[in-house]
Amino acid sequence: MGEGAGLKLNPLKSVSIAMVGKYMELLDAYKSLNEALIHAGIQGRIKVNVDYIDSEDIERHGTERLAGKDAILVPGGFGERGVEGKILTAQFARENNVPYLGICLGMQVAVIEFARNVAGWSDANSTEFTHDTQHPVVGLITEWLNPEGKIELRDAASDLGGTMRLGGQVCHLASGTKAREAYGSDEIVERHRHRFEVNNQFIDELEKLGW
């Protein structure tokens, strides 16, 4: 038996993680996340128990099912269905100090939640879902530099794949954050594959409030 198998079969403790997503009827949609959680658990000799929760169930029944979880993961997705359930999930995590990892849309809904409930911008939203807002805290990426250093332009009429930025992006990690601690560096390059991103026009105001 290899060392990895031994660690997997003989964990020292366990954790319970709620994964709140939109495609729970097809868990293969989250295959890479499930594998990452398992391997992270092996590294720390921890059994990772994942509770798969449909974000529409959070909309219908509230956040009671999230109680007692050690952490919450909200993955990505497309379209408006189930988004309000993800926003409620982010609010629960923030208000109850539960570790929260938002990936793609999961990160974006955390920004929307903070803008609504901390900044007081009740109409805050992403332009993916509505243009009827004075606080589009998440918006379509319309311009970026490609790997060759040339500017690429897109607009809302472009096809879905054509409006998705691909490739590595330099990320500056704030000191004192868990991300900075995990990477051990102030600056990293990560793969970036998004159509929408946090709107830079609101970052200063959100940071003043503790975001």
From TrEMBL:
EC class name: ligase
Gene Ontology cellular component list: cytosol
Catalytic activities: UTP + L-glutamine + ATP + H2O = CTP + L-glutamate + ADP + phosphate + 2 H(+)
GO MF, one annotated term: ATP binding
Keyword Transferase assigned: no
UniProt xrefs under Gene3D superfamilies: 3.40.50.880
Name this polypeptide is given: CTP synthase (glutamine hydrolyzing)
Taxonomic placement: Bacteria, Pseudomonadati, Pseudomonadota, Gammaproteobacteria, Oceanospirillales
Pathway in which the depicted protein is active: Pyrimidine metabolism; CTP biosynthesis via de novo pathway; CTP from UDP: step 2/2
